[in-house]
Amino acid sequence: MIKLLSIALVFAFTGCGPQASPEGRSIIRDEQIQSQINLLKEQNKAVLDSIRFIHNELKTLKQR
Question: The pTM is what?
Answer without folding.
Answer: 0.63
